[in-house]
Specification:
Elements: E1 4-12, H1 24-27, E2 33-37, H2 45-57, E3 61-65, H3 83-103, E4 108-111, H4 117-123, H5 125-138, E5 143-147, H6 151-156, E6 163-169, H7 194-207, E7 209-211, E8 217-219, E9 224-227, H8 234-247, E10 250-252
Parallel strand pairs: 1-2, 1-9, 1-10, 2-3, 3-4, 4-5, 5-6, 6-9
Antiparallel strand pairs: 7-8
Helix pairs in contact: 3-5, 4-5, 7-8
Length: about 260
């Protein structure tokens, strides 16, 4: 039987100034890829530096987590941007994180758009394509994280030479259309029980299935599993998810170590 590899990613470095968000120090040792906020939705230069250094310390791959320029809304509000504007917004942030990574003796592994952008890309495939094109323009070795089983994922893969890693979510509830249930539903949108999150992750990875909010079971193919750093109890969820995946027979490693080249 072939070895099953999986990456565990988490949104990190989203604190800003004197405002702290997430349990980054507790989470970092248990993940394999860190999506580092780059200042537009969260994070600042000092937090970026500290987060990169922490990732390097624990052997965690570093990725840019570019958000829309909306600190007050934490990048979760729609903005009317053109494909070229989106490219520039992403390039600005990814370039900044590239510099911090280089200063720490590291290199970026991936790019993962933040917040409302996944929903925007489903509604506007030109935006979806733009984010993939921007990754290729910056560094063809970079991996783009997309949401599994979406139009965004399919559109990104049309860009020649792109490396894509489809993402599943351990700590969020799925809708029947394979999108995430809106956070506007509060706790009904979240999987806050570590055991349940681990069960969802293992089923996605090992069986290619996930149960939706209505009880329907849908197909999902993932290369990386996400735990949100700002989810309640994220530090407990990530431990349970990793332990569950290892127990199921998975090799938990950064994407750079096993995802095929384009």
């Amino acid at each position: 039987m072939a070895t099953k590899y999986i990456d565990i990613n988490c949104d990190m470095g989203e604190s800003y100034g004197r405002w702290t968000l997430g349990a980054d120090d507790e989470i970092m040792p248990h993940i394999t890829s860190a999506n580092v906020a780059c200042g537009f939705h969260g994070g600042d230069p000092h937090v970026m530096r500290k987060t990169v250094e922490n990732a390097v310390k624990h052997g965690v791959a570093i990725g840019a987590h570019p958000g829309l320029p909306d600190l007050m809304g934490f990048g979760r509000r729609r903005m009317d941007v053109s494909p070229q504007e989106l490219k520039d917004i992403h390039l600005y942030q990814t370039g900044a994180l590239t510099a911090f990574a280089a200063a720490a003796g590291a290199k970026l592994q991936h790019v993962k758009p933040h917040g409302i952008q996944y929903h925007m890309f489903e509604e506007n495939l030109a935006l979806a394509r733009a984010t993939a094109e921007q990754v290729m323009e910056l560094d063809r070795s970079l991996i783009l994280m997309t949401m599994a089983m979406t139009k965004y994922d399919a559109e990104a893969r049309k860009v020649a030479g792109i490396r894509v890693a489809a993402e599943g979510f351990a700590d969020r509830v799925y809708a029947d259309d394979a999108q995430l249930v809106s956070r506007k539903l509060g706790k009904d949108a979240l999987v806050s029980d570590p055991a349940r999150a681990a069960e969802q992750a293992v089923r996605m990875v090992m069986e290619g299935k996930v149960r939706t909010i209505t009880g329907k079971v849908i197909d999902v193919k993932v290369e990386t599993v996400c735990i949100h750093g700002d989810s309640p109890g994220a530090e407990k969820i990530v431990v349970a998810v990793r332990e569950g995946l290892v127990k199921a027979g998975c090799q938990v490693k950064p994407l750079r170590e096993w995802l095929p080249k384009a």
